[in-house]
Amino acid sequence: MNEDGFAVTRRAAMLVLAATPLALRAEPAVPPEVGAELPGARLRGSGRMTFFAMHIYDIRLWVGDGFVDYPSSPLALELDYARTLYGKLIADRSLKEMRHAEDIPDDKAERWLDAMRKTFPDVSRGDRITGVFKPGVSAKFFFNGQPRGEIRDAEFAQRFFTLDE
């Protein structure tokens, strides 16, 4: 299956997370990397990504004590994968979603794609990637709780975590 086979996007998942009542969800433990990055972290929403009835990943949106709104407050997205996906394709798909929201000059897109390809690993069932949005600073990524990389580009960070309008 190619990258276009996974049509449901991170942005669509965030919309679902924001709309799902917390009372319908069991509260999971705060992952250590989330707790370290977002003091007082709490679950804001969660959901399941499926494609043609195949479970792709579960997603959780975490916010800290000082959360006001996006994009002025830090947040974390945790993806718990249910199947194998290749890091290169995760990066390619992420750039495609970012370009869908707004045009990105080719030179900038190439820099961002290169950074994501270096940062996003291949994943298998049970692996987790957590992305932390640091407003005006960066996007920091963890793989199975371990630091994987930080893309220190405020525009990249905001575009990566932005919802489609």
Protein model, in words:
- The chain has 165 residues and is of the alpha+beta class.
- Helices cover 32% and strands 28% of the residues.
- The chain has helices spanning 10-19, 32-37, 87-101, 106-119, 154-161; strands spanning 42-51, 54-63, 75-81, 128-134, 138-143, 146-151.
- The chain has a 6-stranded antiparallel β-sheet.
- The model is unreliable at 1-8 (pLDDT under 50).
The ordered string of helix (H) and strand (E) elements is HHEEEHHEEEH
- DSSP helical segment count: 5
Instruction: Measure the end-to-end span.
Output: 28 Å
Shape: globular
Which structural class best describes the helix and strand composition?
alpha+beta
Largest sheet: number of strands, sense, barrel closure: 6 strands, antiparallel
Note the beta-strand portion: 25-35%
Helix content: 25-40%
Average pLDDT number: 87
| Secondary structure: number of strands | 6
Low-confidence stretches: 1-8
* CA-atom Rg in angstroms: 15 Å
Question: How are the SSEs ordered, and which strands pair?
Answer:
Elements: H1 10-19, H2 32-37, E1 42-51, E2 54-63, E3 75-81, H3 87-101, H4 106-119, E4 128-134, E5 138-143, E6 146-151, H5 154-161
Helix pairs in contact: 3-4
